[in-house]
Amino acid sequence: MNNLIETNDLRKSFTTEAGALQVLKGINLTIKNGEMVGIVGASGVGKSTLLHILGALDKPTSGRVLYNGSDIFLLDRNSLSSFRNKTIGFVFQFHHLMPEFTALENIMMPGLIGMESRNQGNRNFSHKEVKEKAEELLDRMGLSGRKRHRPGELSGGEQQRVAVARALILEPSVVLADEPTGNLDTKTGGEIFDSFIRLNEEKKITFVIVTHNEALSKRCHRILKMVDGRIINNG
Length: 235
Hints:
By secondary structure, this protein is of the alpha/beta class. It has one domain (3-234): Rossmann fold. The protein is 35% helix and 28% strand. It is built from seven helices and ten strands. It has helices spanning 47-54, 77-87, 103-117, 127-140, 156-168, 186-203, 214-217; strands at residues 3-16, 19-32, 36-40, 62-67, 70-71, 88-91, 174-178, 206-210, 222-227, 230-234. It is globular.
C-alpha cells in the first residue's frame, strides 16, 4: 500500500499565561492507503490535537504533514479548504448535527456547500446526485426509515450514524474520528465501529481513530500509542 499521510517532526505549542505549552513534541508517523489506525493514550497527551492537524483544522507550530507526498500547509487558505473538503471526512465524539434539518438534509449539507462554492478540485455533484448519495448512505447505515427525522427525534447511536454518513458524502480518502463511540453504550459503539470496518473493507477508506476503548482499538490494523505528546510505538 502507498503512503497516504506522513508527518515529519510535527510539533504544536500553545501560549498560556504560564508560558509556552508544548502539546506535540516531534511526531513522526506514516499511514498507508486503506489502513485502519487506532490512536490511544491517556487524556491530555495530544491525541485530539494531532487529529486536528492531520485534518488541517489547525496548523502545527513546526514540522510537516504530507498527503501523497505533498505538504498540505504550503497551500494557500482557499486551496487548503478545498483539499480538506474533498479529501477528509470528520467524525467527532459529539455529532454536531444541525437540529433544524432532517437526517437526510444534514448528510446532504457538505455536498450542497460544495455545489455552491465550486472550489477547484471539489466533486461537483448535482443536487439530485447529492440526494441520491445521501439516501444510499442512510440505507447503508440502517436509517432509511429515519431520513425525515430531525436529530432530536433520533437516538444517540442514530445521530452518530448520520454524522458518519455526512462524513462520507463527498467520498473522502480518509476519515478522521475523534472518540466516535465515547458517548455511546457498548453495543451501539460496537455497531458504529462495525460500520467503519465494513467501509474500510468494501470502500478501502482509510480510518484514523482516536479512542479510549481498548477493545475497539484492537480491531484496527495498527495501534499508535501516545504518551506526553509523543508516539512511543509505531507498530
